[in-house]
Specification:
The complex is a heterodimer of chains A (673) and B (144). Chain A is 46% helix and 22% strand. Chain A has 21 helices and 22 strands. In chain A, α10 packs antiparallel against α11. Chain A is elongated and about 115 Å long. With 144 residues, chain B is mainly beta. Chain B has one domain: OB fold (Dihydrolipoamide Acetyltransferase, E2P), CATH 2.40.50.180. Chain B contains two helices and 13 strands; from the N terminus they run βββββαββββββββα. In chain B, the strands form three sheets. In chain B, strands 8-1-2-13-12-9 form a six-stranded mixed sheet. Chain B has a five-stranded mixed sheet with strand order 3-6-7-5-4. A two-stranded antiparallel ribbon of chain B has the order 10-11. Chain B is globular. Classes of the chains: A alpha+beta (673), B mainly beta (144). Chains A and B meet through β21 and β22 of A and β4 and β5 of B.
């Protein structure tokens, strides 16, 4: 039987999808200019939500979508035009809807106050005629066309001719507004000013003024003289004078490219980049718990299979070339093949395209660059690259932090970029690709890059390093300073990227996922952060070792080297045990002490497992090496308080539980952090 | 605290004292098995076991009640209880029976050297004996 709560699930899914769609479309509208198809899609999304919200009894959601729909309808009919304030209003509306969505999901209620939004939505269409035009950039409103038509008619009636004069400034020009003002003043000597495009260019921001077209009425225009005197104004690059005809007005005929270059271009762009109807293979929605359960079962099977292989060997040793043993061996080999395929299959079923994560970024970058006064293009590559859903959840926050950093600290301000000959718009590129058994995600910006010397200086000022220590660091090591707790590179602490609490947490999060993060930077050209993650978190290869009679597992991904040392090779350095391996002095850690286990009897030789990264290595003294095998990581649950040095557990082939060592903490324990 | 009529309890024995847990809180009762100890955890946390592929923590009531640790015998059982949607095992000397109480009294300050706050009450069994009914939320609270 279906009841309202079943519908609620469906409704919430639909809500999520439609809000996502609205956000994408509004962003596209902002970036690529107005297009009828986009408005249509927005209208339909709002309309769908209005209907289903009303059916589900979510009154406020219905009200908001209703007003948004109404506004979009006016845009569709040409009564309103797409301008910055409208887009901002759409974003505000979207935020309110998302707020309502959260409330509905969590408490099934709608308490948010929507009255001010509704008022804004209602009043927008009234205000737009007076205000919105001032902000017009690319799009030209129908009102303007009407006005222009009137001017043209008047001019023609008085026997004058109209001319369009297009003037552009050189890209490096300074003080653009005063220059254009001079141009306009000069033009007034040649005829009567009728109009301009953009209509009120004076109100544009300095960096937005590139090219202005004036419509001038005159009995007989001295176009040579005009060109000469306007070209004489500093920084004027081109001056084009053309007769202006009534048919040049959009609505009367095709829009002339001379008059509306950007609007025309962007609508073309829009058409070519319209998402085509993708042919998708059929899919079904599966509850994530079912997938997790399957994954667990596959994990169990892997464990049993490992044990099976061991028993197979024992059988062989015990019974030799027996016919039944051979059959068992064959069966076991086949089972092993099937198991690994099953494991692969289940793993793939849990994989999601990273697109899901990407969808959060465009809006974030937009809002951020807006608030910082920067111009940033976000390029997202490798949308179809898949990774485990757990990883997608976990990597979200570190990525957001890195992107914020790239926009905030990486990309320079537009005027600064212009000064050093870069395009004013900065670019942040996120890409994701598969490499062997890993996913590599990189965050690239074409900003200022990082300065190793500045980092050294900053580390000294903050008391993280002494002057001498800082000088000893290689450039690469200096870059890694940003991962130290309490380190911030921004000259001033900004609201956006906070105060350096981020990067160490970013690295810790990534390492918790058995991943790695690298930095490449070229001063003045930009920075690349590269994150390498395993494809899945659930199954890893582990090294089994014995310590005080207990079996522990060290994730293979953090094992750098396995070696055997003589006991008297272990030296004391300032009281701490160390060994020297190929000129590197590495601290030795006895887990017995930390875990308060009885000491193992002294021996001549000790197996050592070297763990950690290049600059942070630790030698773990173990009693015995058992071997490596695939293990399924399981949580110890919330009842057992976090234990230093243990990250989880797994079940061995014998059915016993073995603990997985937390390499990060062990390295910290050694005082080598 | 007056309880509902005829709610069922599992009665078990620790150091010759009888205790009970309401049956609705119990997942299952299993025999003693290999326990993997967790270093640096609370003393009463004995470690973890593998319960059909799930990692389940196991605590010792003897240790929590500050009693002498006992040898595990054939009668030793792990009572697996549901605690905040997770299973937690409790080691007991032996499980006696499923029982009901005709009357439940509020707990005194101490029951056999154990703080009364760990109990929901004292149950009066049909044979006249008194049984401390454990308040799992308190027992499994962590350090107390």
């Amino acid at each position: 039987m279906t009841n309202l709560s079943d519908y609620r699930e469906l409704y919430l899914e639909e809500l999520d999808e439609q809000l996502q769609l609205i956000e994408e479309e509004v962003l596209r509208l902002e970036q690529e200019g107005p297009a009828d198809s986009a408005i249509d899609r927005l209208f339909r999304a709002a309309h769908t939500l209005k209907g289903s919200s009303a059916a589900m009894g979510y009154h406020k959601m219905k009200e908001v979508t209703h007003h948004v729909e109404h506004l979009l309808d006016q845009v569709r009919n040409g009564q309103l035009s797409v301008a910055k304030p409208l887009i901002n209003l759409m974003f505000t509306g979207l935020d309110v809807m998302k707020g309502l969505q959260d409330e509905i999901i969590q408490t099934d209620s709608e308490t948010a106050d929507i009255s001010s939004l509704l008022q804004e939505l209602q009043q927008y269409s009234l205000l737009e005629a007076s205000e919105a035009e001032a902000f017009e950039e690319n799009a030209v409103s129908p009102e303007w066309h009407e006005r222009l038509k009137q001017h043209v008619k008047q001019a023609l009636q008085s026997g004058k001719k109209l001319f369009s004069i297009r003037v552009s400034l050189s890209p490096h020009a300074q003080m653009r507004q005063p220059r254009m003002y001079l141009v306009e003043t000069e033009l007034r000597n040649y005829g009567t000013m009728v109009d301009s495009d953009p209509p009120s260019w004076e109100s544009l921001k300095e960096e937005e003024i590139h090219e202005v077209t004036w419509i001038l009425a005159s009995n007989d225009l001295d176009d040579q003289g005009l060109k000469k005197s306007v070209s004489a104004i500093l920084d004027v690059e081109t001056v084009d004078v053309l007769p202006f005809l009534l048919s040049d007005i959009p609505g009367n005929a095709e829009a002339p490219k001379e008059l509306l270059p950007e609007a025309a271009d962007s609508s073309l762009l829009q058409r070519s980049e319209m998402p085509g109807t993708k042919s998708k293979s059929p899919t079904i929605r599966v509850n994530i718990e079912r997938l997790d359960h399957l994954m667990n079962l596959a994990g169990e099977l892997v464990i049993d299979q490992t044990r099976f292989q061991q028993i197979k060997q024992l059988f062989r040793q015990k019974f030799g070339a027996d016919e039944l043993v051979e059959e068992l061996v064959q069966l076991s080999d086949h089972l092993s093949l099937l198991t690994s395929e099953l494991q692969d299959g289940v793993m793939k079923a849990r994989m999601f395209p990273i697109e899901q994560l990407y969808s959060r970024f465009p809006r974030m970058v937009r809002d951020l660059s807006e608030s910082l006064g920067k111009q940033v293009d976000l390029i997202l590559q490798g949308k179809d690259t898949e990774l485990d859903r757990n990883l997608i959840e976990e990597i979200g926050d570190p990525l957001i932090h890195l992107i914020r950093n790239a926009v905030d600290h990486g990309i320079e301000r537009p005027e600064q970029r212009r000064l050093i000959g870069k395009s004013e718009r900065g670019t942040v590129t996120i890409s994701a690709i598969h490499q062997d058994n890993h996913v590599v995600i990189s965050i690239r910006d074409d900003g200022a890059g990082m300065d190793a010397d500045k980092l050294r200086l900053s580390a000294v000022q903050k008391g993280i390093l002494s002057q001498a220590e800082a000088q000893r660091l290689s450039d690469d090591e200096a870059l890694h300073l940003i991962f130290r707790p309490g380190f911030s590179t921004a000259a001033e602490v900004s609201e956006v990227s906070g105060r350096g609490v981020g990067m160490d947490i970013v690295r810790n999060n990534i390492e918790r996922m058995s991943g790695m993060i690298d930095i490449e930077t070229v001063k003045g050209e930009g920075t690349v952060f590269q994150i390498r993650l395993p494809l899945t978190l659930a199954i890893v290869t582990g090294l089994l070792v014995k310590i005080s009679g207990r079996t522990f597992i060290i994730p293979m991904s953090s094992v750098a080297e396995i070696t055997r040392v003589e006991t008297d090779e272990i030296k004391r350095l300032q009281g701490e045990p160390v060994i020297k391996i190929r000129q590197q002095v590495i601290p030795v850690v006895w887990l017995q002490e930390h875990f308060q286990y009885p000491h193992s009897p002294a021996r001549n030789y000790l197996p050592m497992v070297i763990i950690g990264r290049a600059e942070k290595r630790v030698a773990l003294a173990v009693d015995e090496l058992i071997g490596n095998q695939e293990i399924v990581i399981k949580s110890l649950g919330s009842f057992i308080a976090r234990t230093d040095g243990i990250s989880g557990a797994t079940i061995l082939g014998s059915g016993n539980v073995a603990l997985i060592l937390d390499v990060e903490t062990i390295i910290k324990l050694s005082g080598n952090a | 605290m007056q309880s509902t009529d005829q709610e069922q309890y599992i009665e078990f024995c620790v150091d010759s004292e009888n205790y009970a847990i309401t049956i609705s809180e119990i997942h299952e009762i299993i025999k003693m098995q290999a326990i993997t100890d967790i270093p640096n955890s609370y003393p009463y946390v004995q470690g973890v076991i593998n319960l059909r592929g799930k990692i389940v923590p196991v605590i010792s009531l003897r240790s929590l009640f500050m009693l002498e640790p006992d040898e595990f015998t054939k009668a030793t059982r792990i009572v697996v209880a549901n605690h905040k949607e997770e299973a937690v095992g409790i080691i007991v000397d032996k499980v006696s029976k499923v029982t009901t109480f005709s009357d439940i009294q509020p707990p005194p300050d101490k029951i056999a050297q154990v703080s009364g706050s760990l109990f929901t009450g004292i149950g009066l069994a049909s044979d006249g004996s008194l049984v401390g009914i454990l308040k799992l939320d308190e027992v499994l609270l962590g350090d107390s």
